[in-house]
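Entry 14. Structure prediction run on the chain below.
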Amino acid sequence: MEENIRLWFEPDVQPIPGMNFPPKDFETVRQISKNHGRLETRTLTVSSQLKDFLDFPYLEQVFELERHFVSLKTGQIQEQIVYGFTSLQRQEMTPRRLLNMTRSNWGIENGLHYRRGVTLIENGTRMTKPNMANVMACINNLIIGLLIGKLKFPFLPPARRYFAAHPSEAFHLIARL
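Output returned:
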C-alpha cells in the first residue's frame, strides 16, 4: 500500500494523446522551526482521491511528509520522506492539523515507549512463554499509570529508586488497588 501512496505523489508523466489525468486534490502545508541545534522544514501534502481506489477500510486521506533538517553547527543536511494515511476526513483533519499530529507522535514515542523500553527494561527482557510479553506490557502500563498518573511522579527513574528503597510502600500501593 505504501508503494501505491508513493506513486500517487510522483509527478505526472506526459499524457498519451487523447488520455488525460484526473485533477489531483493536493493540499500542501509547510512548517519551519529551529530546534535542537537544527533548522527543520516539514512539508505535508495531503490527498483524499485515493480513498476509492485503495482497498483499505475507512481510508479517507493519504499524505506525503517531507522532512528536511540542516544542522546549524555542521551544515549537514538530512532528508526523509514518509507516507501515511488517516481515516479522518479533511473537515475533521485539515493538513495543518495533520502536520501537527505527526509531530506530536514523537511525544507518544518518547513519553510511553521510551519509558517502557528503557526505564522499565522491557526491550531487554527475554520471554519464554508465548503470552508473557503481553502480561509484562500490561504490568508496565499499570506501573506507568500509577506512578505518573496517580502519584504524580514526573519521571520513572526517581520513582523506581524511591520504591526500591521503600519496598513496603510499593506493596501498600499495589494492595490498595
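The chain is about 40% helix and 25% strand.
Filed with the rest of this week's runs.
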